[in-house]
Amino acid sequence: MLDESHRERVGSRDVGRKAVRRPSLLRILLAGLATCIRRPSGAVGLIGRKDFFLAEKYSELSDHYRGRILDLGAGRCSYSSFLRSQGHSVVAMDVADTSEFGEVVPVVFDGHTIPAEDDSFDVGLCMFVLHHLDHQAELLAELHRVVRGTLIIGEDLRENAWDSFWVAVHTGLIHWGRADRGFRSDAQWREMFGDLGFVVRRRVTIPRWRLPFYPVLRAIYVIEVLKPDKVRSTGVAGALGDQGQPGS
């Protein structure tokens, strides 16, 4: 028979276990749903739809938004509308005019060649667009041509079997482009960026529970655009900076 002191010790260990127990999947889903219900702070102009990633896309990276901005793959143009409401100069662009905001009329292009002169923009945005395409490197090279400052690229990540399942479901349901090899892991995106000579200066991670009905990991990469004259003037080592220590 256990004595009282033993029961107390066992009871205290059980309490300790309960204190450090990880939240259940149900709790994670409920937390995600609560986020969906709450309107993001500052989500001006997002009529009828919520921008679940506004904090990561804008609030955490607002210091990178400057000058003339290209929103490539603008879709419904909700983010372009929001950026304009914050006082930014934005050109929306996509392969079709699907804008739901009368004040934003996107430039329509062929999906391959961006109709703009070299170094026309200070910032280039490509938010959760590239996984719809098979010609990702081609379009990134075009962004490099027309942007003289910073690229901000958001992407769904395929890191494991869980992600592979959800991106397959997503690909089957979307009405946008359906690429055969559109989704990549973080390491694969970084490899592509490196092959193009891009330097990732920062990565912002969006947790899976933020969108509970499509729970994959996401990342937003802040990339410095290096032009040949800049590489020559600073030297390759100086220009590449922390390429050996990628942004986290």
Total beta strand runs = 7
Detail the poorly predicted runs: 6-23, 28-48, 175-179, 231-248
Q: Which architecture per CATH? A: 3-Layer(aba) Sandwich
Largest sheet, in brief, is: 7 strands, mixed
Q: Output the CATH class name.
A: Alpha Beta
Average pLDDT, to the nearest integer?
Answer: 77
Helix content: 25-40%
Report the end-to-end length measured between terminal Cα atoms: 55 Å
Count of alpha and pi helical runs: 9
CATH topology (fold) name: Rossmann fold
Strand content: 15-25%
CATH superfamily: Vaccinia Virus protein VP39
State the strand order across the main sheet. Answer: 3-2-1-4-5-7-6
Number of domains: 1
Gyration radius from CA atoms, angstroms: 22 Å
> What structural class do the secondary elements suggest?
alpha/beta
Order of helices and strands: HHHEHEEEHEHHEEHH
Q: Which shape, going by the Cα principal axes?
A: globular
Quick overview of this protein structure:
With 248 residues, the chain is an alpha/beta fold. The chain is 35% helix and 18% strand. Strands 3-2-1-4-5-7-6 form a seven-stranded mixed β-sheet, sandwiched between helices.
